[in-house]
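Exam prep: given the inputs below (a chain plus alpha-D-glucopyranose), describe the expected output before reading on.
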Amino acid sequence: MNILFAASEMAPWVKTGGLGDVIAALPKALRASGNDVRVLLPAYPALKAAFPAAQRVAALPATNRLPATELRTARSAEGIPLYLLDCPSLFARPGNPYLGPDHRDWPDNALRFGLLSHSAALLAGAESPLPWRPDILHCNDWQTALAPAYLHYLPAGERHAATVLTIHNLAFQGLFDPSLLPLLGLPGQAWSIDGVEFHGRLSFLKGGLQFADGIITVSPAYAKEIQTEAGGMGLDGLLRHRADRLHGILNGIDDEQWNPATDPFLTAHYSARRLAAKAINTVALRVELGLPPIAEMPLLGMVSRLTEQKGLDLVMASAAELAALPAQLVILGSGDPALETRLRAMAVGRPAHFAVRIGFDEGLAHRIEAGADMFLMPSRFEPCGLNQMYSLRYGTPPIVRATGGLADTVIDVADARHGNGFLFDAATPQEFLAAIRRAVALWHDTLRWRKLQRRGMRADFGWSRAAQRHADLYRSLLPSSA
Ligand code: ADP
Ligand code: GLC
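Solution:
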């Protein structure tokens, strides 16, 4: 099959979270099983710098307020063809792909990602300037979700690829002023409750949920949660309506990038069989962070976007109790400036217990996965979560709230045969701390702890099973199988 992915992030060049990791890994896994997979991305400065010789393959004309742009092509080191949408007026901005230096959304995000969606639809339709035609257009999150809507409003009978939309996070919906509708080149009829209208605003995500042939979300538990009022963020009715098209497929992890036996960011390599060397990373991490070397205390780690989703309020509400535990805590995060300030403040006066690092640091993220003894993810909601799978692989048992993909991947140690981590239910400091105390106590039981670590490390979270499920879904959407 020919499959075109459209996305706003791809690691290692542009990554704010798990979406970037997935776009780097899933196309690779699908390609390994014989599909021709290509990825459409905005030509952000990081991509232009990585591929200075990217060849121009087409000029895409201006439409309404969407500017004309050039399409360039390059090939990633792993052999994935990339299509880079080169529109400097919209994409030649360094740093975070969505936010300006003031940490606010770029004011023209509707045009920026309207153009990305529109171009994806163009490449998936009969008017594409490219000889290569996809059978499937696979969109990801709101930034590309308008593409199925553009295709839906093409003249009846015009052929185009079947469409799939993955919801990586329902909290981001791409909501804009309705006056943008004609500027984005959408017809007046799109302004309806059966179109892109959402409580008086134009919703990119709704456009995709309404018109994609297949909808995926990134774990089975989250697929259920988003169909409820509590988890549906206003879209649960539409998702229930489209339930027969909605599939929960657990993400995998890239087990080459995230492999403690070969990870170039680590001080010492280790594996389930050579687990003792993990401790060298713990010693080195304490030195890197300036934490006193108290080896008889476990080191808890957290790596996170700093948003409400990730449950940092639980961490901060528990600060005094955490500082009183026989444990140390490192947090690496970036995001909401108010949360950054509060986290920094939490660490002040507690240098022996807390190390807070603000920023986006890929290497330190790997070193925390390897050096920490246990990993914290007290998320309020979590569509899938990759970090808990990385931590399992790194022999760093996760302590997580039982929600979404966390509930699908972490089994509490109360299950003596299958347990691989620690779960708590209610988002309260009491339950959060109780789970941490259980983990800290078990850590002192070295034999049982080693067994727990090894169980996590030996589990298979690679992409091959998930890639297979994606391929099955694509196949079911091809016209021949109708
Ligand atoms: P989400 O996509 O909601 O942020 P995931 O667990 O799916 O959550 O993926 C997060 C990814 O982003 C992981 O690869 C994690 O290591 C990375 N990450 C998050 N924050 C940082 C940071 N401050 N520095 C480096 N990597 C980070
Ligand atoms: C989102 C979600 C996260 C998921 C990632 C990749 O950012 O918050 O849970 O793992 O996308 O699908």
